[in-house]
Specification:
By secondary structure, this protein is an alpha/beta fold. It has one domain (6-145): Cytidine Deaminase, domain 2. It is 21% helix and 41% strand. The protein contains 3 helices and 7 strands. The protein has helices at 11-24, 66-76, 99-104; strands spanning 6-10, 30-37, 43-51, 82-91, 111-118, 121-132, 136-145. Strands 1-3-2-4-5-6-7 form a 7-stranded mixed β-barrel. It starts with 5 loop residues before the first strand and ends in a 5-residue tail after the last strand.
Length: 150
């Protein structure tokens, strides 16, 4: 998946991510993203698997349950769908990966969707691809589709 790729997300799935961010406020929410190849080389997100935030500082950081990560990888092995990334929120912060996110990032090529939450209300959600090493995060186009794929 190159940086020019588009990430497709249904309105319902985007709303699910926003609702999780609002529900967790003032803490960060987090979860894993399952996707599949889309026409034109893009990635279609098909579901979010919520994770408890295991961070000792959930007001400013997140930590996905490693057992959930491993179990989901096993579940999806060999299928059309794959673990393609993660979602988390930034309470009273921007919809962009933070320096803390970069320091904790792993697995080159993974998508990171970040939802800004201001005073308990979800705002913008953006998509980024972890490039690894010195590359950091690169913005990725996020396109909202309806349930029929349009």
């Amino acid at each position: 998946m190159g940086v020019g790729v588009t990430v497709l997300v249904s309105r319902a799935l985007l709303r699910e991510m926003e609702a999780a961010a609002e529900e967790a406020y003032p803490e960060e929410c987090c979860g894993l993203l399952v996707g599949r190849p889309a026409a034109g080389g893009g990635i279609e997100l098909v579901r979010r698997v919520a994770s408890a935030n295991l961070s000792p500082a959930p007001l400013s950081a997140f930590e996905i349950d490693p057992k959930l990560w491993l179990d989901l990888r096993r579940e999806l092995a060999g299928g059309e769908e794959a673990l393609v990334g993660l979602h988390h929120s930034h309470p009273d912060g921007p919809a962009a990966p933070s320096a803390r996110d970069l320091a904790a990032a792993w697995e080159e090529g993974m998508l990171w969707l970040v939802t800004a939450v201001a005073q308990g209300r979800a705002g913008e959600t953006t998509a980024h691809r972890f490039e690894g090493g010195e590359g950091g995060f690169a913005p990725v186009a996020l396109r909202i589709i309806d349930e029929s794929g349009d």
